[in-house]
Design goal:
22 helices
Length: about 675
């Protein structure tokens, strides 16, 4: 008898099969003496479409909403049905005794496997493989300590609730918006509040009115001092600023405060996915999606890093014994000299790295024990691995130490502040620099070299000048700051308990945030202008049309709190879903009662070749596209394409034109001539 192993992707399945010595290749699986290894292609099974419950729901009509099936059904995804049949066939084999779920170790990975098992009516025993890296050692150890499948039933319940809730709320609100305003509009409990943050920021920028302010700086010869009052260094009264400068110019100042303190800066925390995406965006200008793609290759193909889709920046204590092996595995190339001090003595990682209470499903992204060969990596993989490797080394290094000196010089009753530091131990900064945040830089005293001075010392003011500045609006979101805002969306939630529940997760998950950003762009709700994220007219209008509950991250906070409770057995699945159905009904009714209007401002001068409506200009994956605004038509074509489509007979547009405008007796003629005749008849009818 054999065990069937179900992985999430073919690449992962091949690696597991190699470790388990499954050398016989067949269509859709690999087989050995003890195991048969097969795979999903992401999801093979999904929730049924509305029309699968009732054919009348194939038509989008306001009177049919909300859609609330009494029991949610599953269906096989048509595009990957061939692989589902392979998996189902293996499950029915008489020599298969049990199943090992080897999909990604997390809520969504659990859903991938369980839906397949439900659809195929799996009744035999099953166990769970739960590992955080794809190295041979991790796979062997994982199979040596498989967990009972039932231990993850509550996690599966939470995953099902998340999927069904998104269906009930997302599909109902999307259909209601689309039918009500006759435009292709969609909304969701993560996508919409993310868009709302971008729109709110844009409104702040548009409504911002710059105000002049002045700063005052005195030159004391070998150092300078910046004026500071009770409310900071900004003066909004020019006369007051000039008065301070005139009072100090040419006078003598006295040092009234001088303090030197030994300070230290601890190393940064290890990376989770969101922080790594932020850093790659700041340093390389990468999109979050690109970072996730390159990282997946380092994890799956090269096995050089641990599980990527993690929200933790710590490791658990059971990982500590593996640290030395991980350092030895990466001991080559530019890392050799940096690793010497770590490999010459026992490692003693502190709470900046090891904290069991802050690790749930997976620990921080760190290198594996796999031997590093930089020649096997392309340029992007090298750059991303370098970030991860240096951050991992830096966390194990001692703090950065320096002496901080601050001086307060008083002139004519006004106080001028100076700050400088002397580095005493480079520490972790010898490994990796951390890019500073740009916020509030104007309020910080600049660092300068301060010579030896004493308290009570008198110094002549060489000059004192005022500088005029303008207050600046908040910056538009770029990908790095948007990821931060999504992660920290809890600060927008008023309820304290809900704020805590969203604190660790924010809007979306580390695995889905990049996809959410790309969906907003693809739907033409936002656009990339250089590095900035700018909302379109469509996005701004949508935020005004959706119910208020969907604009705020509070809905996600409530869901995440309850989904966590379901996963931990503290709440029943049925109670959550009953409330979701009520929410869906309420949101649909709010949209139906809305008397707002939607107006597209991206209308082109080209008519749709199928329905004759003026088409909209939208941004597609391959450039600007023309899209029919009529949801029942849905025709799309490149902006520069002939408005009547290509002259080939295989074009969907041309086939419809031929069917609609050609006579039956013409069907034997040349297809090109037939299309021309159909176009001519269409134009005659329009006249």
């Amino acid at each position: 008898m054999k065990s069937l192993v179900l992985a999430e992707k073919p690449s992962v399945a091949r690696e597991i099969a190699r470790v388990l010595q499954c050398g016989h290749k067949a269509k859709g699986y690999l087989e050995g003496e003890q195991y048969v290894v097969t795979w999903a292609l992401g999801h093979l099974v999904t929730l049924a479409e509305p029309e699968d419950y009732d054919q009348k729901l194939k038509e989008w009509r306001l009177e049919d909403l909300p859609m609330l099936p009494p029991r949610m059904k599953l269906k096989v995804i048509r595009q990957s049905a061939h692989q589902y049949q392979v998996v189902k066939g293996l499950m029915k084999r008489q020599d298969i005794k049990d199943l090992v779920i080897a999909t990604d170790a997390g809520r969504e990975g659990e859903l991938v496997a369980r839906w397949i098992m439900d659809m195929a009516n799996w009744k035999k025993p099953f166990r769970r493989l739960w590992i955080s890296s794809q190295t041979d050692k991790a796979i062997r150890e994982g199979f040596a300590s498989l967990q009972p499948g039932a231990d993850y039933n509550k996690l599966y319940d939470a995953a099902v609730c998340r999927a069904e809730a998104d269906w009930l709320v997302g599909l109902n609100v999307t259909r209601t918006l689309t039918c009500k305003f006759n435009a292709q509009l969609n909304a969701g409990r993560v996508q919409t509040p993310t868009l709302a943050m971008i729109v709110d920021r844009e409104n702040e920028i548009k409504n911002f009115k710059p105000v002049d302010y002045w700063t005052v700086r005195a030159d004391f010869g070998d150092y300078y001092g910046d004026w500071r009052g009770p409310s900071g260094g900004r003066l909004f009264d020019q006369a007051r600023a000039e008065q301070i400068a005139a009072r100090a110019a040419g006078k003598k100042g006295r040092i009234v405060e001088l303090k030197t303190e030994a300070r230290q800066e601890p190393p940064p925390l290890a990376y989770d996915l969101t922080e790594l995406q932020r850093d790659a965006n700041r340093r390389y200008g990468w999109t979050a999606q690109k970072t996730a793609g390159v990282l997946q290759g380092l994890y799956e193909e090269h096995k050089l890093v641990s599980y990527p889709r993690t929200d933790s920046r710590y490791i658990s204590s059971d990982i500590v014994p593996t640290l030395a092996a991980r350092l030895k595995g990466m001991n080559s190339g530019p890392y050799g000299e940096l690793l010497k001090p770590l490999l010459q003595q026992p490692l003693k990682p502190g709470r900046r790295l090891v904290d069991d209470s802050k690790v749930s499903d997976h620990h921080a992204i760190i290198p594996t024990e796999q031997t590093l060969n930089l020649n096997h990596l392309d340029q992007d993989e090298k750059r991303l691995y370098d970030l991860i490797a240096r951050r991992f080394i830096a966390v194990l290094y001692p703090p950065y130490r320096y002496d901080q000196t601050s001086i307060v010089t008083e002139v004519g009753g006004e106080r001028f502040y100076s700050r400088g530091k002397v580095e005493t131990a480079r520490g972790w900064k010898a490994v990796q620099s951390v890019l500073p945040d740009k916020d509030d830089k104007e309020e910080q005293l600049p660092e300068q070299a301060l010579a030896l001075h004493q308290k009570g010392e008198s110094l002549a003011v060489k000059s004192c000048k005022t500088t005029k500045n303008k207050t600046r609006p908040p910056a538009r979101y770029n990908e790095a700051t948007l990821l931060t805002a999504m992660e920290q969306a809890g600060r927008l939630v008023e309820d304290e308990e809900l704020r805590e529940s969203i604190k660790g997760s924010g809007l979306g998950t580390p695995a889905t945030r990049a996809e959410i950003i790309e969906k907003l762009i693809h739907a033409s709700y936002i656009e990339r202008h250089g590095k900035e994220m700018v909302p379109t007219s469509k996005g701004i209008q949508l935020v005004g049309l959706v119910p208020p509950a969907l604009r705020s991250p509070e809905l996600t906070a409530q869901w995440e709190q309850r989904l966590t409770d379901i996963a931990k057995g503290r709440e029943k699945k049925s109670a959550f879903m009953e409330d979701i159905r009520k929410d869906a009904t309420r949101l649909v009714e709010e949209v139906k009662k809305d008397d707002s209007e939607y107006r597209a401002d991206n209308v082109s001068k080209s008519k749709c070749p199928l329905c004759g409506r003026y088409m909209l200009i939208v941004n597609g994956k391959r450039g600007r596209m023309l899209s029919c605004p009529d949801r029942n038509c849905g025709h799309r074509q490149p902006e520069k394409e002939n408005p009547y489509g290509r002259m080939g007979s295989n074009s969907r547009v041309n086939q419809k034109l031929i069917a609609r405008y050609s006579d039956k007796e013409e069907l034997g003629t040349n297809l090109g001539d037939l299309l021309k005749a159909a176009l001519a008849k269409k134009q005659d009818q329009e006249k």
